[in-house]
Amino acid sequence: MVAKKKKNKELKGKDKVKEVCRRIRVARSYWDAHNNAACRGEREKALVLYETLTPEQKEQIPQQLRVWLRYRSEKYFGKDKPNGMATKRFLRKSKRK
């Protein structure tokens, strides 16, 4: 027998904060395991939920998780860098062309 899929119910209040923290932690564990594609997907899902939080709810998320979500991961997954990271070697190759 096939298991039924749970319908995504709208998260509210503390449940939404918990879900954001959980997704950030999952993304960090993927990051530590060098699984960048999975990390990027979880980070995007966490960011979407994070942006829906109120300022009071954002402060309930631990500082360490917020810093990783906004600064550390943007440094590597930023949109201005090719393939997530710009290295000196990549920049030298692109200049040659």
Tell me, briefly, the overall form.
globular
Query: How is the main sheet built?
Result: none
Radius of gyration: 17 Å
Percentage beta strand: under 5%
How many H/I helices?
5
Terminal-residue CA separation: 57 Å
Name the poorly predicted regions.
Answer: 80-84
Helix content: 55-70%
Kindly give the count of domains.
1
Structural class: mainly alpha
What's the number of extended β-strand segments?
0
Structure description:
The chain is an all-alpha fold. The protein has one domain (14-96). The chain is 67% helix and 0% strand. It has helices spanning 14-32, 36-51, 55-60, 63-77, 88-96. Helix 1 (14-32) runs antiparallel to helix 2 (36-51). The longest helix has 19 residues, at 14-32. It is globular and about 30 Å long. The termini are far apart. Mean pLDDT is 78; it is low at 80-84. Keywords: Methyltransferase, Transferase. One of its GO terms (biological process) is methylation. One of its GO terms (molecular function) is methyltransferase activity. It comes from Hyella patelloides LEGE 07179. This is Precorrin-3B methylase.
List the helices and strands and how they pair.
Layout: H1 14-32, H2 36-51, H3 55-60, H4 63-77, H5 88-96
Helix pairs in contact: 1-2, 1-4
Task: List the main descriptive attributes of the protein structure presented here.
transferase, mainly alpha, Precorrin-3B methylase, globular, 97 residues, methyltransferase, methyltransferase activity, 0% strand
